TrEMBL record:
Keyword hit for Translocase: no
Name of the protein this chain belongs to: Glutamate--tRNA ligase
EC number: 6.1.1.17
Residues reported in the UniProt entry to bind ATP: K256
Biological-process GO terms, alphabetical: glutamyl-tRNA aminoacylation
Taxonomic placement: Bacteria, Bacillati, Bacillota, Clostridia, Eubacteriales
Domain Aminoacyl-tRNA synthetase class I anticodon-binding: 335-480
InterPro entries (UniProt xref): aa-tRNA-synth_I_cd-bd, aa-tRNA-synth_I_codon-bd_sub2, aa-tRNA-synth_I_CS, aa_tRNA-synth_I_cd-bd_sf, Glu-tRNA-ligase_bac/mito, Glu/Gln-tRNA-synth, Glu/Gln-tRNA-synth_Ib_cat-dom, GluQ/Sye
GO molecular function terms attached to this record: ATP binding; glutamate-tRNA ligase activity; tRNA binding; zinc ion binding
Family: Belongs to the class-I aminoacyl-tRNA synthetase family. Glutamate--tRNA ligase type 1 subfamily.
Record's keyword terms, sorted: Aminoacyl-tRNA synthetase, ATP-binding, Cytoplasm, Ligase, Nucleotide-binding, Protein biosynthesis
Subcellular location: Cytoplasm
Residues covered by the Glutamyl/glutaminyl-tRNA synthetase class Ib catalytic domain: 5-322
Function statement: Catalyzes the attachment of glutamate to tRNA(Glu) in a two-step reaction: glutamate is first activated by ATP to form Glu-AMP and then transferred to the acceptor end of tRNA(Glu).
Amino acid sequence: MSSKEIRTRFAPSPTGYMHIGNLRTALYTYLIAKHDGGKFILRIEDTDQERFVEGAVDIIYKTLKETGLVHDEGPDIGGPVGPYVQSERKGMYLDYAKELVEKGEAYYCFCSKERLDILKVNAEALKRPFKYDKHCKNLPKEEIEQKLKDGVSYVIRQNNPTTGTTTFDDVIYGKISVDNSELDDMILIKSDGFPTYNFANVVDDHLMGITHVVRGNEYLSSAPKYNRLYEAFGWEVPIYVHCPPIMKDAHSKLSKRNGDASFEDLINKGYIKEAVLNFIALLGWNPEGENEIFTLAELTEKFDYATINKSPAIFDPVKLRWMNGEYIKRMSPEKFHELASPYYEGVITNKNIDLLKISELLQTRVEVLGEIPEMVDFFDTLPEYDIAIYTHKKMKTNTENSLTSLKKSLPILEALSDWNIDVIHDSMMALAKELEVKNGIILWPLRTALSGKQFTPGGAFEIADIIGKEESIKRIKVGIEKLEAALA
Ligand code: GLU
């Protein structure tokens, strides 16, 4: 027997950035559909016109495209159940709300802002969550009709029972029952004629044939009210998959408002989009086995939404760095060079420097592309540095023996007719042997003089090779001068 095709939707509100939690929702939504060959739909939820942000929808398209979460239906490509932008569906909701009014499951409410404010203040004083008091539920029919005729501003509210319980199932959180006395008569249609998210999500998910509703667990507490709406209409309730929150630490949720990174922020810092997506997939879900590196295709094959964790996931930046480094190591040298190149711009201006050689050095050493400029700036110009960095306990170097090493190295290097890693290497090894000192006594001062830095990608031979003979000699002389001045 063939089962019903899975249809999932990602339904972002255009906020102007892609929050990490939203991207994870998009990913899980995509994976649930694609694991079973179903359809992944994009719906833009822009009914909150006050929060409208210019260009925000483009960020959603761009992120989905860049991460490979390709939708089958959506505002830009259309589909059988459009329009896919909620504001363009505005005219569709009122009739559904009126149907509920007819059924006694909803009612017109004409309460003024002042009256509602008083209710809110009272609730606050009693330390109770605000709940509308059903005042307009009991208005006589004639009065309602007169008010509507007179064009009095109104909203339509859901009419929830005050006794009994409502139960619903969530794949992650299980069976949840709430007392109906806790259910607020939430607004379905606002005074501007737009539906609330609370109403639109139910109508749209039904009309779009959504089988699995995937979203953040902040919607879990509203789910009983949504269930009542489905039931009032006599519609099939979708499978609910409410995802656990993503935490910054044990106490606070990851949030852009708290200064936490969005997807774009991470990309701008030099994280690889595939790595970010891979990392996000594991925030709240883990496949069996040790491996943690998966392509989107592999995730699609392995993903099982029934095994999403209920407990909050912690966003571990150290793990993200590690994972990003793994992606960098595994890419082709050509690809890495292409990604690294923009970071050399304005940092390495000397045309004689072979950037490919730098990329080769960096690929195994860099974890986040944004760190490249500070790692490579010394290739271009020798930075100001303190001679204290010549002294290294483990290498057994100090100001005196560093000076001796540089003075001995200088004429040998000056005399080399060829200039490449091998000849530089062999000449310096021979020197260490001749002087009967450990290699570090020669190499630490040399690398320090060549770079002016304590830490560098690559050692003395690679650096000398990249900056060239003339520049190397120049920098060694600077080193000698500095050390001599200190000892004078
Ligand atoms: N527009 C809602 C949001 O961005 C989506 C909630 C849902 O997926 O139902 O949070």
